[in-house]
Amino acid sequence: MPTVIPFVPQQITVHLGSPSSSAANVTVPFIDYVKNVASSEIYPTWDDDALRANILAIVSFALNRVYTEFYRSRGYDFDITNSTAYDQYYVNGRSIFENVGRIVDEFFNDYLRRPGFVEPLAAKFCNGTTVTCEGLSQWGSQNLAQQGYDYVQILRSYYGNVEIVPNAPIRGYTTSYPGSPLRRGSTGPNVVVIQTELNRISQNYPAIPKLANVDGIFGSRTEASVRKFQEIFGLSPDGIVGPGTWYELIRVYVAVTRLAELRSQGQQFYANSWNLNPGIYPGQSGDRVRHLQYMLSVLSEFIPEIPPLAVDGIYGPKTEDAVRAAQRWFELPVTGTVDEETWDEIYDQFSGIENAALRSSETFPPGQSGRNRYAATTTLTQFPGRDLRSGSQDPVKQEVVR
Known about the structure:
The chain is mainly alpha-helical. It has three domains: 8-171, no CATH class; 177-275, Orthogonal Bundle (Muramoyl-pentapeptide Carboxypeptidase, domain 1), CATH 1.10.101; 287-377, Muramoyl-pentapeptide Carboxypeptidase, domain 1 (Orthogonal Bundle), CATH 1.10.101. The chain contains twelve helices and nine strands. It has a three-stranded mixed β-sheet with strand order 3-2-4. Strands 1-9 form a two-stranded parallel sheet.
């Protein structure tokens, strides 16, 4: 996504109907929007901790819509709808409950996220009685508050390991498009955005050439990747990133990473290339090590021989053990260092697993966490044992999110 650090918009534009309806738009201060939705969605008589949990979910969901440019990347002129089939209930012109308004004043620029991820959590919720869903149960949150849970415990009982980001910056809304087309010869952070999005999208659409270096230089290889992307998605294949291509890149990137869904892959390695250049060695630290650890941690869920490890960005003994285990599994020289061949094997297995496993539609039972929680939701019950390559029999069909 173009915006690395999420912000709270001073105003938000709400469509008073379903996305494709001809209903009116209203633009209101973000804090007033949150007070309106909270007063429309929950009961002011509930315990304060239940109210706080629900309000943080409301804020986080709305910020996710803004951050991912969910509707604007699709050509709409609003940020969110008031249709509960898609978003949150906003009643134009309604009165606000005093205690709800007071709590919103306290929390309107705080939001939820997964540790290590950038995007605000798409914190889905439902009433928990007539409608159930993956996410927070509104009536269930009140029941937990009455049992003595504080708002953080309530949120984690439904969303798992989440953290609260306090005092997010507030600024006026600006579109992410840089204002003029990007083409061969362009340089800078907006080119990094394009390159990062293309590399991630290419996992799902392998015809798009991967870029060995995310370097912010719009050269011939970036142009070739842009052209192939444009061909695949029905755009004029001119190799130039104007507003149409820019927002189509965002739309597809959000879709393949599921950034606008509760169980997102997560935007963790924003400016990291998915290719190795150069190798990674014990004793190193930083984003490339975190990237390696993240892929190994996913593989460990499916390959018991690879030990689980924390994603801390430090290539210590546990990371080296996991690398050695992966090399044994892939029948590579067991060196404990990550050369190009090791990286390619880890990446190939990871990309296949995460594309399938992170698309499970089963829900998390409240309170589960860690490996057992992940295993309870995956649609893959057993790793096949060896690489599936051209000519392999009985391959697992991979669904592409559009």
